C-alpha cells in the first residue's frame, strides 16, 4: 500500500472529548471516526487491525471445532417474548417496528435466535454437543456511550453458544472455551487474567470474565496475594476475621457536631480513626415490601457493593439510591441525613459485617447537628440484621482462605457463561435422549468484545509517541520512509525495489510516498504504531545501506540493502512469538 | 470437517412457501433459515459460500486499489436530512428513534455517511481520486420480501464510493469498476452481462447494471441481434420505423360490442389483427396538474413501460394506476372502461408512438357496448400528444441503429453509477483545487448484492439433484463417503488417511462419518453441491482403489488410492479455471 493512494487521516491534536488514551490514539491514528454518539466508522487503518483480530479469534474458534454461522442483526420480538427478555431487558435493548408495525429489535446478543435454530434443526442427543459462533455487529443502546469503542452502542462481537445433554459435556466445552480465550489473548501478547464473575442479566450460575489488566480499567479485579484466586470485585465476599467485637470501654455520650458534614470532617475535627465511624446509605425497597426504603450501614471508610446489596430480598433490582427528599419524606425526621443513626431509628436497618464488629463507635443521633460517641451494639442499641454489603479492600482476607486481597484494575474483553437451561427451558429446546425421551438441552455462551479488545490492547500498548502494536495485529508490519523520493531517482528505484520484494514475501508493507518531511512521516508512522520502520536516504545508499528503527524498543540499526528481506522477516518472526 | 460434528440441516421436502428454485435449494441444502419475513440466518454451509464470494469480491476490489472501510449499520437522520433523502426515500427506509428520542435509520446504502467522511478528512485535490468500499449487512424494509435472499430485507452488500475532481477521473474509475465487476462474475463462472440502466432513486446520469442471465429473472434485458447493445428494458426507446401512417381506406362506423370485454375477445369475434386494436390506461396526475387523471393509449398487443410514463411531466411519481371507480368518478361518463375511446373524450390523451402510426383501427366509442371501427387520426379525430410509452418487444428496431431487439431475462447482481455531484453538492463536500479554490467533488458508486449473487448463481448452477457449485465458491471441494465406516477398521483408516492428506494439502474436505446409508449421504452431498465425491468401499480397497464421481458431469472413475491427492488437486485446478 502507498500512502498517496490511501487515507491516513492522522491528527496532530488531541480531540477534546476523548477521555481515555485508547480513544485519543484511535482518533489521532485515524482508526475510527464518530458518526453519532457511540457509533463509529472504521477507517482503513482501523479496519486492517479489526480484521486481524477477527482472524485470530476465528482461527482459534475453528481449532476447537466450533462452527461459524451468521444470525441476523434485526430480530423479531417473538423470541424475546418467549424467553421473557422482551420485558426484562432495559432500555439498552433498542426496540422498533417495521413498516407493517411488527415489533423488532437490534440484537445485543443472540441466545433466543440460536435456541430457536437448535430446537428446529437438532433432534437427537447424537448430534450434540455443538458449539456455534459468529463474528458480528451488535447494538446496545448504552445510556452513556463513552471511551470510544470501549463502550460504544454499535460494536463487533464474537459470540458463541454451545448445546449439550449433560452438565459434564457443558463443563468440557466451557473448559475448552476457557483455554481458547487464554490462547487468543496470549497470541495477542496481552497481560490479562480470567476471573470468577457475576452472571448478570445473561443468566446461569457459573461464569468467568477475561480482563486486560490496565490501571485505567473500569472494573476492579481481586487477586489473592498467595493463591490463584481471582474474581471480579462485584462478587467477592468480605470475609470476617475470626476476632470478636471488643467489649464496650467508653460511655455513650452526645457531642455537638453542627459544623461537621462528612466522615472526613468528623475524623479530622475529633482526631478519630475512620474505622470508628459509620455512614448510612438508603436504597429503594422492592415494590411488594411494606417499607419503601431500606437503610444500610457501612463503616466510614468502606464502599458499598451494589451487586451484594441487590441480593438482599427486600431491595429493588436494579438498585435505586434514594434521594435526600425521598428519604426525609419517608422518615419524617427533621434532621439532615448526616445526623441519622441507628439509635431510635424508625426503620429496620441492615448493617455490614464490619459494622457489626465495631465497638465504641461514632454515629449520627437522629438529633440535628449531634452525634453519639462511644456507641456499643447490644449495650446501647440492639444489633440489627447483618449482611455482607461492602466492596472488599486491599488487605482483606482472600475468600479462598489463602493470603490477603490485592486489587487491580481491568477491562473486560471476554465473558464465558454456563447458562444451563434458562433459555432452552423457556423456549422448549429439546432433543431425544438415549431412551427416546425428550430432554431439555443445556447451554453455554461465550463472548469476546472484538472492538473493545482493540481499545484495551492500545491501553496496554502505547507510549508518548502513539500506539505500539503487537506484531500479530499491526495494520502494517513495515513502513518505508524514503527521503527525497520525488527528486532522487535512486531513492525512488530503491524504495520501489524494497517495496516489491517485501510485498511479494507476504509482508504487509506501507510505502510513504507523500511529499512530506521525514519528521512528519516518522511521527505519523510512530503514532499509527507500525512495528518496523525503514528509512531510505542517499547518504546511506552510497554504502548500499539503509536505516532500521524498531518502534517498540527504539533500537536503530544500519543494515545492508541486500539483506533487507531476511532481516525484516526475522524481526517479524520474533515479534509474532 | 466431519459431518458428525457439523450441522448439515438438509431437507428432503420442498418447503411450501419457496417459489423460486434457488430459494428452495438454499433451504433444502441447509444454507439458510428464515427468522422473520425477509430476514435469514446463514447456516454453516451457507456461510462458507458467503465468505468465499466475499473473498473474491474483496480481492478484486483490493486489486484496483480501492480501500476497505466499515461504516455503521445504524445511521443518524441528520445526514439524510442534509441530502434530502430522509423525506424522499419511501417506506423501505427503516426509521426509528433511540432511547433519547433521536432519529436514526438502518442503512440501505451509505452515500451520506461516506460523503460526510470525505468532507471531514480530505482537503486537497492531491488526495483524490479515492475509492472506498465495504462489505456489510444492510437493511431495506421491502414491502413484499420474496424469493429467499434474492429479495430479502437484511442482506449483505459490497458498496463502493469514489471521489474525484474531474469527470475524466470519475470515468476512469467507473471504467475500472466496470472491468472489475466483469472479473468478479467471470471468476464465479457466471453467464452474465452488463447493460445500460436507469439511475432510479440513487441519482446521477450514467449507470450500468450487471445481470446474471436466467429465464426466471425478474428483470428484462434488451439485446441487439447484431451489435453489443444491451440495456435494461426500463430505459430502451421504442424506435419508430421510418414508415408513415397508411392513408384512411375504411369508413368509420359504430359496431355493437356489448358481449366483448377484452382485446382478445375483440380480435377473436371480429377476426381483427391485434395491431388494429388499442387500449386505454389511466394513471394519476401529479398533484399540481389541473386534471387529476392522465389517459394513455397503447396498441392492443403492447405493454406499458412505467419508467417512460413516469418521465411525462404531468404524471405522478412513483406511478399510481387509477382504479375503475376513480376513473368513472373523474370522467363522469356512464360507460365501462373497455368502451372508452379518443373520439369526444373529455380529457387530453397521450398516445404511444405506435398508436400514432395506426390507421383504420378499432377503438372504444364512449358509448356503452359499442366500438368505432375504421377510425383514422386527423380525419376522424385530432392526433393527441405522442410519446414513447411502451415496453419494446422482440423484433423492434435496436435503438443503436443496428439490428433488431432480442429480450432475455436476468437477475440484477451489480450496479455502477456515475453520481456526479448529487450528494457532494447537497452536503458541501469540497476540496481545494490546483488554484487553492474550493471545488465540489464528483462521485461514483458501485454495488454488488453479495447474498443475492449467491441465489443467482444457484439459479444458473443446479440440476434435479440439487446445487452444482462452481469450484471457486463450493462450500467444500471434496467429500469422502466411506461405506461401513463404523464396522470396518480398514475403511476407517483409509478414510482418515485420505482426509488427513487432502486437509493438509489445503483442500476443503468433508468426511461424512454419519451412521447413514450411502444413498442418504450421496443425496445430501449432491444436494449441497460438493463438486468432487469420493466413495470408499471394501470391494475397491481390495485393489487399492476408490471411486470418484464428478458432481457436474456425473462422470465416474475408479482411481488408485496412491494417486488421490494429485488426482483431486488436478480436478480442483481444472474447476477453478
TrEMBL record, chains A, B:
GO CC, any one term: cytosol
Domain of life: Bacteria
GO BP: any one term: prolyl-tRNA aminoacylation
Domain called Aminoacyl-transfer RNA synthetases class-II family profile: residue spans: 33-470
Main location: cytoplasm
UniProt name for this protein: Proline--tRNA ligase
Gene name per UniProt: proS
Pfam families on file: HGTP_anticodon (PF03129), tRNA-synt_2b (PF00587), tRNA_edit (PF04073)
Keyword set, alphabetical order: Aminoacyl-tRNA synthetase, ATP-binding, Cytoplasm, Ligase, Nucleotide-binding, Protein biosynthesis
Notes concerning its domains: Consists of three domains: the N-terminal catalytic domain, the editing domain and the C-terminal anticodon-binding domain.
Family indicated by similarity: Belongs to the class-II aminoacyl-tRNA synthetase family. ProS type 1 subfamily.
GO molecular function terms noted in the UniProt entry: aminoacyl-tRNA deacylase activity; ATP binding; proline-tRNA ligase activity
Assembly with partners or alone: Homodimer.
Function: Catalyzes the attachment of proline to tRNA(Pro) in a two-step reaction: proline is first activated by ATP to form Pro-AMP and then transferred to the acceptor end of tRNA(Pro). As ProRS can inadvertently accommodate and process non-cognate amino acids such as alanine and cysteine, to avoid such errors it has two additional distinct editing activities against alanine. One activity is designated as 'pretransfer' editing and involves the tRNA(Pro)-independent hydrolysis of activated Ala-AMP.
Matches recorded under CDD domains: ProRS-INS, ProRS_anticodon_short, ProRS_core_prok
EC code(s) of this entry: 6.1.1.15
Catalytic activity: tRNA(Pro) + L-proline + ATP = L-prolyl-tRNA(Pro) + AMP + diphosphate
Keyword S-adenosyl-L-methionine set for record: no
